[in-house]
Amino acid sequence: MTAxxxxxxxxxxxxxxxxxxxxxxxxxxxxxxxxxxxxxxxxDDPLAGNDVLVSTVRLHYPSPYSTMAHPAACDWISYxxxxxxxxxxxxxxxxxxxxxxxxxxTGASTYRAQAPQVIRKAAARxxxxxxxxxxxxxxxxxxxxxxxxxxxxGTIQTGLDYYYRGKAIDGRTYRxxxxxxxxxxxxxxxxxxxxxxxxxxxxxxxxPAQRRKVLCGGHSLGGYLVGPMLAWDFDKNVSTKxxxxxxxxxxxxxxxxxIAFTDPLGLRSAPLPDSVISAFGNNxxxxxxxxxxxxxxxxxxxxPVFSAPELGPLLGLAGEASARAPRAESTLLRDxxxxxxxxxxxxxxxxxxxxxxxxxxxxxxxxxxxxxxxxGILLDNNAQWLSPLQTGMGAFDGPVKAKxxxxxxxxxRIPFLGPLVRIPQVGIGFGQNYAPADRNRLYDWLxxxxxxxxxxxxxxxxxxxxxxxxxxxxxxxxxxxxGGGSADMVEWYFPTRILSDVVFALxxxxxxxxxxxxxxxxxxxxxLLRGGQWQSTPTGTRLLTVIAGDGPNQNVGLGGLIPxxxxxxxxxxxxxxxxAAEKQNNGQPExxxxxxxxxxxxxxxxR
Length: 607
Prior knowledge:
Helices cover 32% and strands 12% of the residues. It is an alpha/beta fold. The protein has a domain at 308-482.
């Protein structure tokens, strides 16, 4: 560390709070707005039914935070717009407008099951609402030509040939961006992401008064973006309030399998430590990280062992095959390219034993699966061990055997040892991981509502799953991964700077544009020093927090950081919080979509 850097840190630490108190408030920064709007109806979305209209909306909005050379397509942002067929033509006239951010490595298609449910439940109350499912700006780099061709020709071989074998479609060949070309994604951080969100809101609700019915939320990472969004001062002038995030989202907020933190450590209540940490984190750590991103060092999640740009098209084609020919035998895994960034994840997620990670005789591509079983083996909680990827969407229709990788089933039931693994169980998913037992048998898939009432068992009597643990339709998941309009389920070029910016903004280095996170509240030090609120969820905004009953975010509860009024739907996994089917096995309304309608229209409140 240089002497100058140390001097800067010390100066900020000693004078930062005093300067902040006496400095003149800067003039408001003019906020941009889209200069072109293109809306295209989506007419082939089976999840929408006959009563919900879907369209893709594209806004031409060059970001003020994007200064490096970039493709012209990245001057556009987009979202899926869902509305009732009998509702108003313009979002500003709706009774409520939901806006949803996707999670890490996911896109707007994540909301294609939930959005129509919310719209129908609201309509049953006499309310017409809209749901705007956001695509992040980096989706501008995706090429869905192979998807469209696979759907048109009726075979995913067309898509595989396009994405992985260099074959042209209508004279066009696929070009995968290399990390060295993606330095501009190093600018796609929290400030850009939130400003894009603001641009969508102000387009949908131009009048500040209309924003009292706008709700802001997200799933997974999107849920963790909610706190910064509500606490953000967009024009960098706290005396103006129309631009404040909590007023842009004046109708409420929702975090689905995420927490709406604004200041979890409560540093706002301790100005000196806040200044020291912010100065060091911003001037040293954050500056170094951002420089690396801009120079092409991991600007997106693309490594030799895990590559979203390589796996993204494959998962989309898996959804396409499952949606169009669910019971046909899958050729996807067999025909996918044998590259480390595909082979290693398949071996990691599908190996039933530790030895199979390195066993040359074990081939994770060797299972015989129908197309819908191929999607299930990658995503269902009975097969996929990594909790953030899990969905309760059914089970194999055939004999299975318990996995011992990454841990034996029912390890948590061992006396004395069991309680020690209770928390990892949430992250890894002990107790329900199975693999097909017969490599020669063709395995089909039982959907979530086809599980026997008494549960599904192995030949040895071990319970594989029960109806209360299965809540998402595998048919719906296939459609979501296949994509609708210009949106799909996987974000191929997820900007890693979003993750680092969230960490820095929430306490490790809140400097430069991250200082726009002005309206912080609560946190641990606020509780200890001032007797304030332990949780740092925003105050003054109606907030719905959903924590999946069997999901990884339960771990956050160890620190008492989950709001006490959080909804915890039993049996739900990480994705289920946003993908659960409208019809549930227990005969009750799907609870998350119902709670979202309650959030917009609370009992006794007039709107």
